[in-house]
Design brief:
The complex is a heterodimer of chains A (472) and B (246).
Chain A (H helix, E strand, L loop, with lengths): L8 H10 L1 H10 L2 H12 L3 H17 L1 H14 L3 E5 L2 H14 L4 E4 L3 H6 L1 H7 L3 E4 L2 H8 L16 H11 L12 H18 L2 E4 L3 E3 L4 E6 L3 H7 L3 E7 L3 E2 L2 H15 L7 E5 L13 E7 L3 H4 L15 H4 L2 H6 L10 H12 L16 H5 L6 H14 L5 H14 L2 H18 L4 E2 L6 H4 L4 E2 L6 H9 L2
Parallel strand pairs in A: 1-10, 2-3, 2-4, 4-7, 5-8, 7-10
Antiparallel strand pairs in A: 5-6, 6-9, 11-12
Chain B lengths: L2 H13 L6 H13 L13 H14 L3 E5 L5 H11 L5 E4 L3 H4 L10 E4 L8 E5 L2 E3 L4 E5 L7 H4 L3 E7 L3 E2 L2 H12 L7 E5 L4 E2 L7 E2 L6 E7 L8 H15 L1
The chains are: A alpha/beta (472), B alpha/beta (246).
Chain lengths: 472, 246
């Protein structure tokens, strides 16, 4: 019952490419993330070694996930918190609603949580008479625009400053209509004042979790704004939403992961606020929530264990893969049609909503490999995209043209002499037909030539050249 | 079957395990009990005074500010001076932390000092850090009866006091200290790692300070890494002493 539109990736992408406003927003964001990551990584000689360490920690944890979940739960309970398991999004929503009702909640504030987006929690709470207010500035912007996030760490990256200004005027109607909102700082102050009121009056605060620490039973949020901390400190109940793969064994292990997280995400040495929360308010504490609950959601993760997609569960959600992805940078996050865009989304989304509902995503890649190059936990994203493509082929989900094309190619590929003969002829013909070394239009390749020229082959085939040059 | 059992069974099915394997259980127990340190960057592994200098540089790189005073008793004067420099009212709220409580606040006649959790109306909050990490310019603050978490986030200006001797090179040293204080596997309700003032780049990708948390973070480093006066102050003091003698 998801509202995912991943099935329409091609239409979404076409619309995104034609959307001038969106292209301007993506263009403004430009290579900022890429440059800042490069700079931060360059300042720490141990960065690559820390990536190896981070990968090893996550691999170890996943191999022992059942035991770390038990250990974590034991520590949370020992310190007065509660752990609730949920097999799927529906169960998780029911648990959250039940907790909110027990707390007599009418209003809920939320820190940025992709799991909450995955659960489509806000709409559900609203249907049940509970107002959920997003407090991360980016999430707040997309909430008042009734949109989904387009980036996992910068949810409103697709929105221009002018659009935010118009949205604030449309929604904040209690403020003077002629107020000056030209500067980003004035808009930020306006949002800060409005949300401050919400923080102070909310009954329940809901956050996500970047990590869960088995050793101490702590949940960790990493933010820059401080909204997550206000969300979880001020109301009487704090609910943490996390998926099962967020487990990490010890505080020392978390330190390794923190050293690569912010650098890979925003290029900061550390995000401003890294907060470890363990259980509810203690006797004598002057503030903090009276109740602390963790909803541990599976939603397809356990089925990835032992599959070709297990490595995806190492992901720490830094967003580096999408920042470096030529496809993501051309079409933006919404085209992917689900919470998780870019390369990590193209691998994760099919596992959550089913490959039959996301069959274009594994093909939304040029296989350039930059995502894997920059991943802080070295997830082999291209390999897994290929694995999804194989599954699509096996399950006859790929379109007839692709299937017959592949069948034709495999016929030749299995017959090397014929292959070499045929490609030689084809290369010579194309070379002769191409005008000034390229094609403006070519039958069967219109998908390519509609947007750019196709270069005509120059000289002999690769194999022929290889053979010629290998001779002593 | 409960959802808990369903999820755990599914995890075990995927991993091809039962959960009763002695070797796996031992591996997990050992890892949790040993909490071995991983790779620690060389950057923060410095002699005390250089470590403090690195910490102050890293705070500055994260858009925070720092000053240093010789002894804890100098802190109230420093806070009053800072508020004046920032053109802020002479008013602040602090927790009941004994180290803060022992400072001579009353000597600052113009300064109104209130204590306890913040309700959001305070312009300046003063906290005492448990420790700091030079490697990244990060402060570590713990919640507790004397340390309200709200003070770290609601006031516009957050002033944090840290003893120079509590500035470590890395996170790992502070985890060790935390375990000594609270016991293995136990934690205060909240551990706040704070690196600079609050910020957001969510409007048009422009970075602006002061999103929801404090717009300003100022750190006051107290004393020297060995517990005595910092070297610069010692120099000043010895010169003063020398002059008096002559």
């Amino acid at each position: 019952m998801t509202t995912a539109t991943s099935q329409r990736f091609k239409e979404n992408a076409r619309a995104a490419l034609a959307d001038a406003q969106l292209q301007r927003a993506i263009g403004d964001a430009g290579g900022g993330f890429v440059l800042r990551r490069q700079e931060a990584a360059g300042k720490l000689p141990e960065f690559d070694a820390l990536r190896d360490s981070a990968q090893a920690i996550k691999e170890h944890t996943l191999r022992h996930l059942d035991l770390y979940l038990e250990a974590y739960e034991e520590r949370v309970t020992a310190q007065g918190g509660h752990v609730h398991y949920a097999v799927n999004a529906e169960e998780a929503r029911a648990i959250v609603l039940d907790l909110c009702r027990k707390a007599g909640a009418r209003s809920v504030t939320k820190g940025k949580s992709m799991v909450s987006e995955e659960m489509e929690l806000n709409a559900f709470l609203e249907q049940n008479g509970i107002a959920a207010v997003e407090t991360d500035l980016g999430e707040y912007i997309i909430q008042i625009r009734h949109e989904a996030p387009s980036h996992i760490i910068a949810p409103a990256i697709h929105v221009t400053k002018e659009q935010v200004q118009a949205d604030f005027r449309r929604v904040h109607t209690h403020l003077p209509a002629d107020r000056n909102l030209d500067e980003s700082t004035t808009m930020l102050t306006e949002a800060r004042n409005i949300l401050r009121e919400k923080f102070l009056t909310a009954d329940v605060g809901i956050t996500g979790a970047n990590f869960l620490v088995a050793e101490t039973g702590s949940s960790i949020i990493v933010t820059n704004e401080g909204n997550g901390d206000l969300t979880q400190t001020l109301p009487k109940m704090h609910i943490v939403l996390a998926t099962i793969e967020k487990l990490v064994p010890t505080l020392e292990d978390v330190s390794q992961l923190l050293r690569v997280l912010a650098r890979s995400a925003t290029g900061q040495e550390m995000s401003v606020y890294t907060t470890l929360s363990t259980g509810p308010r203690r006797p004598g504490d002057p503030d903090g929530p009276a109740e602390y609950h963790v909803v541990l959601l599976d939603n397809g993760r356990s089925a990835m264990l032992g599959s070709p997609f297990q490595d995806m569960l190492r992901c720490i959600r830094c967003g580096a893969c999408m920042n470096h992805c030529p496809v993501y940078n051309a079409v933006g996050g919404h085209a992917y049609g689900f919470v998780y865009p870019g390369p990590m989304g193209s691998v994760l989304t099919p596992a959550i909503i089913g490959i039959e509902n996301a069959k274009h995503l594994p093909n939304a890649s040029t296989f350039c490999g930059r995502c894997e190059e920059v991943c802080p936990v070295r997830i082999p994203l291209p390999r897994m995209l290929r694995a999804w493509r194989e599954r699509e082929f096996e399950r006859h989900l790929s379109p007839a043209t692709v299937r017959s094309g592949l069948a034709l190619w495999s016929f030749f590929a299995k017959r090397p002499k014929l292959y070499s003969f045929a490609t030689n002829i084809a290369a010579q013909m194309l070379s002769a037909l191409g005008k000034r070394g390229r094609f403006r239009r070519l039958p069967l390749a219109s998908g390519w030539t509609r947007h750019r020229d196709l270069p005509a082959p120059q000289g002999a085939t690769f194999q022929a050249q290889w053979k010629a040059r290998s001779r002593p | 079957m409960s959802s808990r059992d369903t999820v755990l069974a599914s995890v075990r099915r995927g991993l091809g395990v039962t959960g009763n394997e002695a070797a796996r259980r031992a591996a997990v127990q050992e890892r949790l009990a040993r909490h071995a340190r991983g790779l620690i960057p060389a950057r923060g592994q410095l002699p005390p005074e250089e470590r403090i200098a690195l910490f102050r540089n890293m705070v500055a790189a994260a858009a925070g500010t720092t000053t240093r005073v010789a002894i804890a008793a100098d802190v109230p004067k420093e806070v009053a001076a800072l508020l004046r420099t920032l053109n802020l009212p002479q008013a602040m709220r602090r927790g009941d932390d004994p180290r803060l409580a022992a400072m001579p606040w009353a000597e600052q006649k113009a300064l109104t000092v209130s204590t306890g959790a913040s309700d959001g109306s305070d312009l300046a909050g003063v906290s005492h850090a448990f420790g700091a990490i030079a490697e990244s310019g990060t402060l570590m603050l713990l919640s507790g009866p004397d340390n309200p978490t709200t003070l770290n986030f609601l006031p516009d200006t957050h002033i944090v006091v840290i003893s120079a001797e509590d500035i470590a090179g890395d996170y790992e040293s502070l985890w060790t200290r935390l375990r000594e204080r609270y016991g293995a596997g136990a934690m205060p309700r909240v551990v706040n790692l704070i690196t600079g003032p609050s910020r957001s780049a969510d409007i048009g990708q422009t970075l602006i300070l002061g999103a929801h948390g404090p717009r300003r973070l100022h750190v006051i480093v107290v004393g020297s890494a060995t517990g005595g006066n910092p070297p610069s102050f010692r120099r000043v003091n010895s010169r003063v002493i020398a002059r008096n003698r002559s």
